Amino acid sequence: MLILRKTEKFLRRQGKPLVNFVFKVGELFIFITQSIYNSLTPPFYGRNFLRQVIDMGFYSLPVVGLTTIFAGMVIALQSYSGFASVGAESMVASVVLISVTRELAPVLSALMVAGRIGAAMAAEIGTMRVTEQIDALTTLSTNPFKYLVAPRIWAGLLVMPLLVLIGDVIGIFGGYVVGVYKLGFNPANYINATLDELEALDITTGVVKAAVFGFIISLMGCYNGYKSKGGAQGVGEATTNAVVSSSILILIFNYIVTELFFSR
Amino acid sequence: MAETKIKLTNVYKSFGKKKVLRGLNLEIKKGESLVVIGGSGTGKSVLIKCIQGLLTPEEGSITVDDKEVVGIDENDKEALHSKMGMLFQGGALFDSLSVWENVAFDLLENKGYKKADAKAEAIRVLRSVGLDPEVADLSPAELSGGMQKRVGLARAIISKPEIIFFDEPTTGLDPIMADVINDLIVESVKGLGATALTITHDMSSARKIADRIAMLYKGEIIWQGTVKEMDETENPYVVQFINGNSQGPIKTGV
Q1: What helix, strand, coil percent values describe chain A, rounded to 5?
Q2: CA-CA to A247 of 20 to 30 Å: which in A93, A214, A255, B28?
Q3: Do B92 and A136 touch (CB under 8 A)?
């Protein structure tokens, strides 16, 4: 009897986190479905969308620019030190190009935007939740998914690719600056090497990744804010969860998208 | 006899193991101002949210104009909300919008008003709740608690709703400002001929606003009647609550 009781107690203890996990997954799945449905059906709130575009796009430009320029510069230095030992210095331009467009610009930009915008989204929507502003929206015959979530999802999907394209240019320029002014490459040769190596696939990969990452950032920001509970502590937790979950998902989906494009 | 506007029959709502509403029955007549009194945590806010369709009861029926609210779809819910207004306890004004945009939100987003017309209407309603037009362009954060309540009231009444909910309308206000808000509520409700449901534990507010008072205790309506009947009742729960006695059948759990 004692063993049976202990086993039951053990199973109960193990079962609770499992049930909670399944509940959370189900809740997230329902949230994603509602977000997609409400993003595709009218009414559309253009003004809210534009506000998000400005917040997520325009105001993120300095962060993305700084991140990608230094990433490009570091890759130029690192690859030169490696290639010089085997006499393949001419490969620096193409390594900078491929690294920046396929990986560094999309991933680093997304992580920076997740910290900047994902946190802000979770904090804003979370505060609206705990101060009953979301209930107020509903009582004013306005669907909170359409008013709050859909504009952020669209902004994430459309703005991140644009940010990454700008990041590509700035990152490659960073590599050029180090290559030409520090490592002594001929400017014309460096530019030609970059252009020769440039392929549509490199840019496409980065842009597709950016769109996926933008969706993830907006989704996790909105989800964590929307489901926040309690007062300031709940909003704080929502903000942390938004940044952590979107950062992890960005790294996971980076692999998945790369696998889709480049698996042989 | 006035027709029934809102009817709750045997409504149960719980959160996890906590049973908040336990077989609640309540009826509100058209044009009536009903005040639900009760201590903190007795389920007053949950009651309002269930009527609005923001929370779904596990059991029971809630009808508004003889139409079932429990389990209605999103489109019907929007239609239901279009005939309701609500003054939230903390105001629940949108931080990202100016005062006039808050007040005119329904006109701009749902009623197709042009910006200039919506602003003019918002300023007219702001005046009716005693606020100057200069307030219109401020942000909600720049207002005092009393002013925020007035703006919330203006937002609740601008679309001339058939039903208005007031969630603790005088909480956090000084007695004079609380009385001003009570007067505005009475004026607005009577002016619109609306049905009003107020939840409060402020007895002076309840006396001023109510046509009828109901007392909620442990998830059930345990007493209801007019203000005069309330003053004459010997129901120990009501007597304890309205006199604010710590001794009596209501245990505060302190």
Answers
A1: 90, 0, 10
A2: A93
A3: yes
